[in-house]
Amino acid sequence: EEDSDTMSVSVLLDGEESSLEFLDVHAQDSVGGGFFDAFVFVYSVDDVASFESVEETMYHLRHDLGSDRPFILVANKIDLVRNRKVSPEEGKKVAHQHDAKYIETSVTLHHHIDELLVGILRQIRIKLNVIYPEVTQSKNSKKGPRGLLKRIFRLSRKNEELVENVFE
Length: 168
What we know:
By secondary structure, this protein is an alpha/beta fold. 42% of the residues lie in helices and 20% in strands. The radius of gyration is 17 Å and the shape is globular.
């Protein structure tokens, strides 16, 4: 499923298939912190301006909006070794400052793309397991209409209490 701003990818992790939906958002003003399960920030290693833009957006989401969602910082175009202007150390430093995971990729060479997708899904599952352990803990809780409602809407009084207690 694709249109100009969204893309959907199926990922198999630990024997369970999930669909990751990506929304391409360029302006930090149009990004709300609560509507996404994770944020993936991609910059080009041969473009310092793209790196600086990503760093500003990460800061805005994490510190100004208080987002607690997983952050993944992606250094792309690592195949352009001679044109590289942003070092791995700079990328890792920014990732560390904003509590983000860091990975280097090359879409052209399809280098580390599968690892990136699996890593995104893993970070989302880790975060959901911390917030909603009884929903993600047992496979039996996923069966039936009530389990479906919990998965889709995350509705239960216990879950609401967990969300409140996370920030204490």
